[in-house]
Amino acid sequence: MKAVIMAGGFGTRLRPITCNIPKPMVPVANIPMMEHIVNLLKQYDMNRICSILYFQPEIITKYFGEGEDFGIEMEYQMATADFGTAGSVKNAEEKLKDEPFIIISGDVLTDFDLDQAIKFHKENKAMATMVLTRVTNPLEYGVVITGDDGKIIRFLEKPSWGEVFSDTINTGIYILEPEIFKYIPPKTEFDFSKNLFPLMLKEGLPLYGYVAQGYWKDIGNLDEYMLAHQNVLGGEVKIDIPGERLNVIGRDIWVGKNPNIGTKVKFKGGVILGDNCEIEDGAELENSILGHGCVVKKGAKLRNATLWDNVHVGENATIVDSVVSWSTHIQDGAELEKGVVVGEECRIGSNSIIRENVKIWPRKSVEEGSTVFTSLVWSDKWTKNLFNDFGICGLANVEITPEMASKIGAAFGSTLKKGASIITSRDSHKISRMINRAIICGLSSAGVKVADLRVTPAPVARFKPNAFMRGGGIHVKVSGDDPNQLEIIIFDVEGRDISVAQKKSIERLFNREDFRRVPIDEVGEITFPPRVPENYSEELLRCIDLKAIQEKKLKIVLDYGYSGASGIFATFLGKLNCEVIALNAYQDEIRPNRLTPENSFASVSSIVKSLGADIGIILGDGAERITFIDDQGRVILGEEALLTWAKMVLNAVPGAKIAVPISSTNAIDKVAQKSGGTIIRTKTNSRALMDAAVNDNVEVSADNNGGIIFPAFQATFDGMMASAKLLEFMANMGKPLSEIVNELPAFYVKSDRVPCPWEEKGKVMRFAMDFAKDKETVLVDGVKIILSDDEWILILPDPDKPFVNVTVESTSEKKAEDLLKKTIDRVEDWKNKEV
C-alpha cells in the first residue's frame, strides 16, 4: 500500500522553534518528526511514499531527497495554494488513483499497528477508514461514535463540553480507496473532517472507524512537544532512538558517537545524548535530550530539558522544562525557568533569568544579569535595565504591553508608602490611554491613590506635585522620535525625573515581581482632580513680566504640534496682548507630536517671513521643549539656541548662574563673562540639569536640544514657561531676535558617535584616560580633555545604545572637522586594540 504524509503545516503554535523550519522537521529525540513517521511506515512495508508539501518545502526535499538513504521511494506533491487536507490530496490524484492508500500527518508521534488498521479496512470493505484513539480531553479533536460493526454513525469536529458524546477521537490517520477522489472537488478548499466525512455520512457511504491501541500524540503546541519528549524518555512510545543504550542500573541513557563525558557527571531518569556531546564533571542531567555537538559545562543543571544541535550551556547554568533551539549560547549562571522556549542562534547572557513561559525568538541577545519577563519577539536585545536615560522606552504594545505597564505601576507603587497619592497623565494617543490605565491598575493594587489628569502636557503634570500632597507621578507619551515607541516617564515630588537610586529600587521589585498587594479594602482609589491647568496658568502669569509683554504687542507664529498644550497655553496667551498665528492647535490621538522637525521648521519659517512676525515658536516633545525661529526666518538650534538663551538671561539678570551640559561650547563662558555670570557644567542627562536647578541656585538650566528649566517656576523642562520667558526677554531687550542672535560669538562644535559593543566601552574609556594623562581633564561625564583654551574633546559612552559619543570644539570649522575625525579614528583604534 502506498502512503501519503501530510507535511505542509506552518507550525505556528510551535513558534519560535518553527520560525525557520517546517513543523514536520522539528526534532523529537534528535530525529525529525517526519522521519519517525517514515520509520513507522517502513516497519509495515509501506516503502512508497508521497509527501504533500506547502510551507518551506525545500527543507524537507533536501533532507529526504528521493528516499534512497532511508530505504524508501519518496516523491512529492507541491501545493500551489491552501486547499485544505482533502483538497491537497486531490492534487496528487494521478499518483494515488490506482490503489488504496494510507494518509498520516508528518507532525504526530505514534506507534500504532498499521497492519491491524489496514486489515480492518479491508475486512469491512470500507471506502474510508478513520484510525481512532481514546483520550481524556477530546475538546481539541474530532469526536467520533461508531456502531458495533465499526461503522461511524456520528462525527463532530472540536466540540464544546456540552457537545462531547465520546472520548474516541479522530487521529488524522486515514485509509482510503481511490474512488474517494470523485467526492473531492478539484482546486477547492476541502477538508477531510469538515467536508468529506460529513458528506460521506450524509450519503451513507461506507465510512468506518478503527480504534487503535498504542501511543499517539498530536504535537500541536509547545506543551505537547515537551510532553512528547518526556513520554519518549519514559518508554511510553516505541520509536527508534539513535545512539548506544548504556547499561546503567535504574537509568536509561542513550549516547551518540564520540562522546566526551566526565566521570563525575550525574544522570537521573532518561537521558539522550547526540553525537559529539561534551559533558563536564559536576553537570547534572535529568530526563533531558541533547542534540549533536552540545556542550554542558561544570555545575550546570538540566531537568526535563530539550536541547537541539550545538547548544552551549555555561557553568552553573540551570535549564528546567525548557526547549532550546540549535546554536544557542546559554552563558554561565543563566537560568531558564519552566516553559521557556529559545529560538536558534540566541545568546543568553551570564547570570540572566528567563522567567516562566517566556519565548525568545531566533537570533536575539539577552544582556548579562537581565531578568526577562515577557517574550522577546521584535527587538534584537533585552537589556538588564528597565530604565534608559530618558525613562522607560519600548515598542508600543510589543515591548511595552498592558501586562508590563501594570507591573511597572505595581513596582513603583511598592516603593511608596501605602496610601500615598500619585499623579498619572498622558498624551492624546489611544495607545497611551491604554498603557496609562494599565499603570493605574498596578498602582492601585499596591495601595496607592491615583490622581489621573488624563490628557495633560507633561509640564503641567509635573507642576509642583508636593504642593498638592502628591508623591510624584507618571506620564505616558508616544516618542517624538519614533511613532512606534512609547515612553513612560516617572517623576518625583518636585517634578524632576526620579533619581538613579529610585530607578534601581523600582527595577529590583520589577525584576523579582516582588510587589505589595493590599487587601481589597485598601486598594488605591482613583480621582480626577479639577482645575489643574488653571492652577498652572495662574502661577505662570505670576512668574513673568506681564506688562512688558503686553506693551510690546508681539506677533507670534506658534506651532503646537497637536499636543495637549493647545487648550492650556492658548488661554494664557490671550492675556499677553500678542497677535498669535496658531498652527496644529488641536489634539489628534493618531498623531500627537507627529510633525517632523524639518516640515514644521520650513512651515513656521515661511509664515514668520511672509507675515512679518517677531518670532516663531515650535513646541516639541509634548510641550517640554521648544525651537524658536527669529524674525528673519532662521531656525535657531543646538548650541546657537543655548547661547541665545544665555545672552537673554544674563541681560535680564546680570551675574546669574546658568547650568549647561559638559558638552556645551566654551563660547557660553565668554557670554557669561561680559555680564559677570557663572556657567556651571553638569552631566548630559536631564536629571543632572534638574538637580542643578534645585541645588545650585541657578537662574536657568538649559541643554542644546530645546530643554529649558526656570527653577523659580518649576525644576523641570517646560516649553510653555520657556516660550513665555522668551517673549518677556524680547520685550525687555527692545531689539529684534535676529539682532540678539547676530551678536553671539562664533563657535565651532562638532559631534558624532562611534559604534561600540557594550563589552568594549570600558576598554575605550581606559585608553581615553591613558591618552589624557598629561593633559588637563574634566571627569564630570565621560572624559573631557582640554587641549588648549579654545580646543577640547569629550569622549562619552552612550548610556542606552552600543555607541561612544564624541564631541569636539576648535577655533574654525576646518579645525573642528579635522579634530573630530582624528578623535573618532583614535576611538576606533582603542576599540579594536587587543588587550
Core attributes:
elongated, 835 residues, alpha/beta
Report on the architecture of this protein.
This protein is an alpha/beta fold and 835 residues long. It has 22 helices and 54 strands. β41, α14 and β42 form a beta-alpha-beta unit. The longest helix is centred in the last third of the chain and has 20 residues, at 813-832. The mean pLDDT is 90.
Major sheet details: 13 strands, mixed
Radius of gyration: 35 Å
In the predicted model, the low-confidence regions spanning at least 5 consecutive residues are: none
Number of helices: 22
- Kindly state the mean pLDDT as a whole number? 90
Principal-axis shape: elongated
Structural class: alpha/beta
User: How many strand segments?
Assistant: 54
N-end to C-end Cα span: 67 Å
As a percent range, the share of helical residues equals: 25-40%
Q: Determine the strand fraction and express it as a percent band.
A: 25-35%
Q: What order do the helices and strands come in, and which of them pair?
A:
Layout: E1 2-7, E2 27-28, E3 31-32, H1 33-43, E4 48-53, H2 57-64, E5 73-78, H3 84-90, H4 93-96, E6 101-105, E7 108-110, H5 114-123, E8 128-134, E9 142-146, E10 152-157, E11 168-176, H6 192-203, E12 207-211, E13 216-218, H7 222-233, E14 244-245, E15 252-255, E16 260-261, E17 266-273, E18 278-279, E19 284-290, E20 295-296, E21 301-303, E22 306-307, E23 312-313, E24 318-320, E25 323-324, E26 329-330, E27 335-336, E28 341-342, E29 347-348, E30 353-354, E31 359-360, E32 365-366, E33 371-372, E34 381-382, E35 392-395, H8 402-414, E36 421-426, H9 430-445, E37 449-455, H10 458-461, E38 473-478, E39 485-491, H11 500-512, E40 526-527, H12 532-542, H13 546-552, E41 555-559, H14 565-573, E42 579-583, H15 597-611, E43 615-620, E44 625-629, E45 635-636, H16 638-652, E46 657-661, H17 667-674, E47 678-682, H18 686-695, E48 700-702, E49 708-709, H19 719-733, H20 737-742, E50 749-755, H21 758-771, E51 776-778, E52 783-788, E53 791-797, E54 803-809, H22 813-832
Parallel strand pairs: 1-4, 1-6, 4-5, 8-12, 15-17, 16-18, 17-19, 18-20, 19-21, 19-22, 20-23, 21-24, 22-25, 23-26, 24-27, 25-28, 26-29, 27-30, 28-31, 29-32, 30-33, 32-34, 36-37, 36-38, 37-40, 41-42, 41-43, 46-47, 46-48
Antiparallel strand pairs: 2-3, 6-11, 7-13, 8-11, 9-10, 14-15, 35-39, 38-39, 43-44, 44-45, 48-49, 50-54, 51-52, 52-53, 53-54
